[in-house]
Amino acid sequence: MLEDRGTAVSSPTRWPAAYPQGYAVVDVETTGLARDDRIISAAVYRLDARGEVEDHWYTLVNPERDPGPVWIHGLTSEVLEGAPLFADVAEEFAARLDGRVLVAHNAVFDWQMIAREYARAQREAPVRQRLCTIALSKELGLPLPNFKLESLASHFGVVQQRAHHALDDARVLAEAFRPSLRAAAAGGVRLPLLECRPLTEWSDTPRIGRQASGDYGGGYRATTWRPSRKRPACPYPNPGRYEDGKPLKQGMRVAFSGDTSTERELLEDRATEAGLHVATSLSRLTSLLVTNDPDSGTSKVVKARQFGTPVVDEAAFGQLLRDVEPAGE
Questions:
Q1: For residue 311, what are the β-bridge partners?
Q2: 81 Cβ contact partners less than 8 Å away, ≥ 6 residues apart
Q3: Which helix (H) or strand (E) holds 114?
Q4: CB of 31 within 8 A of CB of 106?
Q5: How many CA atoms lie within 13 A of 210 on its CB side?
Q6: Long-range contact list for 30-33, CB < 8 A, 24+ apart?
Q7: Per-residue pLDDT tens for 115-150?
Q8: For position 231, what pLDDT does the model report?
Q9: Dihedral, CA of residue 78, residue 79, residue 81 and residue 86, to nearest 10
Q10: For residue 106, what pLDDT is reported?
Q11: Which of 251, 245, 258 is nearest to 304 (CA)?
């Protein structure tokens, strides 16, 4: 146990009243990283309000397609062939998540994968908030060399037995989350909770003529949970870079990176409606990058630093959207 190692923070006598009443620490293994990739195994550790383990659950899931990087997760087609479909475990999975904050390492990925699976099954995951342990580590100022799960585990003396196995990854995260939660409570730290909006649209429209980015050689014809949307071209010329303290102007090229509390497509729609050009990549022509995690090291953040592209967080961008200057002024 962590307490035996002397690395855990003792539970504060006075617990913040605003903290959640329960958590579901989740890990999913998938066929890849793309939108049309599938969950192949899932694990949930349910924790009480102070981070103590209540129970845990694990299942394999038949993705009905190539399992992807077997050399990473070790789950072959033969192993998954007799596993239940996601629709078959959706109810039990939902019972484990219901009424709790979803906790994961890089939580936006796990949440999006889960939300897409529920959308395919024509259901909604009963999750309203998520907490990313990377974001919590940053809030606590933990002296980690990087934000990998193994680094967080090592910091709290948690021994990982089977990396990239959903059940063991969830166990490791649960054991590392408990002292993190207690440290946050003792320091009166506001937990970095983000809203989860369930997906309500899905489609099995096949993609023809190319392999999905999550295809690792299986040669399957991929499907997607939602048809891609082609945005209309921005009618305004690019007026250049955003300048701090000044309003946005119609035609500015805006890119997004990382986790957002508002569903990404809704945020992009708001930008488009305001007359901005939503860019899927970042270049020297990009006027502004919106990210809640400027230290994440994503390719867009790295390029923004290289190009000198201004960066603002989601809250600041929301304020700027209220008063976008018309083009030509």
A1: 289
A2: 62
A3: helix 107-120
A4: no
A5: 3
A6: 30/68, 30/113, 30/214, 31/63, 31/65, 31/66, 31/67, 31/68, 31/214, 31/216, 32/68, 32/69, 32/212, 32/213, 32/214, 32/215, 32/216, 33/109, 33/213, 33/214
A7: 999 999 999 999 999 999 988 998 999 998 888 899
A8: 67
A9: -150
A10: 84
A11: 258
Which position has the token pair 């809250």?
315
Interval 274-324: pLDDT, tens: 899 999 889 999 999 999 888 777 889 999 999 999 999 888 888 888 888
One-letter amino acid of 218 = G
Q: Are 69 and 32 in contact (CB under 8 A)?
A: yes
Query: Residue 58 burial (CB < 10 Å; 0-12/13-18/19+)?
Result: middle
d(CA 35, CA 155): 32
| Side chain identity, residue 194 | L
Closest CA to 237 of 251, 254, 248, 249: 251
Angle (CA) 155-159-165 rounded to 5° is 115
53-98 residue pLDDT tens: 999 999 999 999 999 889 889 999 999 999 999 999 999 999 999 9
Q: How far apart are CA 251 and CA 286, in angstroms?
A: 11
User: Which run of H or of E encompasses 28?
Assistant: strand 22-30
Read off the tokens for 316. 């600041």
Length of the chain (residues): 329
- Report the chain's mean pLDDT, rounded to a whole number: 85
Rg (CA), the chain: 21
CA distance 107 to 156: 20
Which of 3-17, 159-173, 218-232 comes out lowest in average pLDDT? Answer: 218-232
| φ, ψ dihedrals at 265, nearest 5° | -65, -35
Distance CA 231, CA 253 (A): 13
Q: Which residues pair with 24 in a beta bridge?
A: 46, 102
Tokens of 69: 């990087």
Spatial separation of the C-alpha atoms in residues 176 and 48, rounded to whole Å: 15
